[in-house]
Known about the structure:
heterodimer, A: alpha+beta, Rossmann fold, Elongation Factor Tu (Ef-tu), domain 3, 3 domains, 8 helices, 19% helix, B: alpha/beta, 6-stranded mixed β-sheet
Amino acid sequence: MEVLKIATAGSVDDGKSTLIGRLLYDTKSLTDDKLKAIERSSKQKGYDYLDFSLATDGLVAEREQGITIDVAHIYFSTATRSYIIADTPGHVEYTRNMVTGASTSQAAIILIDARHGVIEQTYRHFFINNLLRIKNVIVAVNKMDLVDFSEERYNEIKADFQKLVEKSEYEDQHIAFIPVSALKGDNVVKKSDSMSWYKGETLLSHLEKLDTNDIYNTGKMRFPVQFVIRPKTEEFHDYRGYAGKVYGGDIKVGDEVVVLPSQTKTKIKEIYFNDKKYESASRRSSISVILENDVNVSRGDMIVKINELPKVEKQFTATVSWMDAMQLVAGSKYVLQHGVHKVLAKVTAINHKIETDFSGVENNVSALNMNDIASVSFQLNKPIFFDSFKENRTNGAFILIDVQSNNTAGVGFIE
Amino acid sequence: MTEKLHINALENEAIYIFREVAAQFEKPVLLFSGGKDSITLVRLAQKAFYPAKIPFPLMHIDTGHNFPETIEFRDRLVEELGVELIVRNVQDSIDQGKVKEESGRYSSRNMLQTTTLLDAIEEFKFDACIGGARRDEEKARAKERIFSVRDDFGQWDEKNQRPELFDMLNGNIDLGQNVRVFPISNWTELDVWTYIENEDLEIPSIYFAHKRDIFVRDGLIWSASEHVYKDDEELVEERMVRFRTVGDMSCTAAVDSYALSISEVVAEIRDSSISERGARIDDKRSEAAMEKRKQQGYF
């Protein structure tokens, strides 16, 4: 079955948990025991409606403080497909978590409280969805019940958001607007009786119709080698399979390819998935390939088509989203993991900090703190084989690992 | 060699994770309980490394209170795969005085497994332990990473987890630390069952409806067995039941069922209004039972 991953973004109290709870409730994804637990807990707290946040907040500290600390994953399915919602909190460590949640998502829901309209937080949410190049963005204007289901108010918010969209450089992005009331259930799964002026789809039917062929950003085929399979058994004495995941485009038997960094030219001889051979495989397949010639390939190498070479360089500039409590400063060194390839990287310069509300850049920045986004230049000890993030979402991204703590300290999007 | 490969997104993600484990760690091990999730893991590992054998051993932490059907199944599967099976017993940890057996009405060896597991990790110097936990199972698990780092004491620091971005899995650790790896993090119970059905995987017989001596306590169906504490007033009866999870006898409750085949099990789960862990006695101890166990080094 197809799986669609969605990131949700919203500020504190704009009803994100309620919206997710409503989706689960109206698709009958909440089991009796979970529903009972929610009812019991809501009653204990003296609420007169069901507090769906209890379905998503998993840690003791979260329930105690009534806040979401970490990215939570929520699962539900319909007859059409399975959904995974990466629910990210809307407060302090917001940027870090939102970037994380969005990195594995193909669609995003941005929530706006109809009473407050487009606020500064909305700018940030949209900015991150842009930065991460999320192709499908759904703007859910929530709490319509509290503005008397007013078409005028909805259109006002829509127009305000359109002004934001004009600042975006990501032209292929699809943006849909839906007026909802998560609390009352209007236009989430069921069509609203109170907003007959709205002729569009409900949130769920919009999600159901997103074309799964179209939700992934495509580009040139990239095959980073993860692992070399050498069975060393009598039956498969000379077998040498290169295991990895296909990105960007299709791979076919007979494709003329180049192995990087050795620049060796060869052809794809066989494609295996488990014990079966296939003529071709599409992006996101975890396959093994056998090459025509006996060439030396190891983990971190990359197989690409002969006339589709990526950049092979030791220096580049990237937009970095910083996620660690330890600051990033010029001159510091990190392990840079690009896909499955690890190299050493030195920060040569912090060029400027980028404001996440589309207001521009800040020059002369000496250090990056957690949640900062900035343009940073790097020097590597060995070349990596990359595309710009705009051309290939996976082959244009990397993480920075702190050499002392081993923590994933930041993520970069190559310009 | 005819057609284009059609992919199952979750399966391909899991295979990718298995290959990252084999590439990034020196001594991985697959934690095998004989349950449906670990059976699924074994199948995925086979696919990830075909035609080579699975490049790490399996390990079972045996409480001694397992269902005999599960143990019999485990031994048969390991023989077919030709992989090494390591078994470490909770009974030994009890005999060595490292843990104390619980007593009374809700006694279980489930919690005691943690000590045996941590000792085994130290004994074999495992740096990655692959487990079948899924995020949809339980709310603390919903927050856990695919590569989840544990400190020297096996503890999970839930508030300080590494962000996981795109497909990139950071397996860098210090000496003494280890990583718990969850390749089927994003699968639901139904995904697992559908996979078992499609792949035609064999599973222990207790997953299918069978006649069993049971008694009812707190609305849950408990197995009547020498390993399960029972009051004299608690009446034993025979019922058609099956199990949705395979844990210890003392922490796994049965459900009423007439499902005799995988397709009937799948149909039953599709219609079920009770969650999988709704029949886990160990989770009923408190709202945060799983989170507490995880902090201490549980699976």
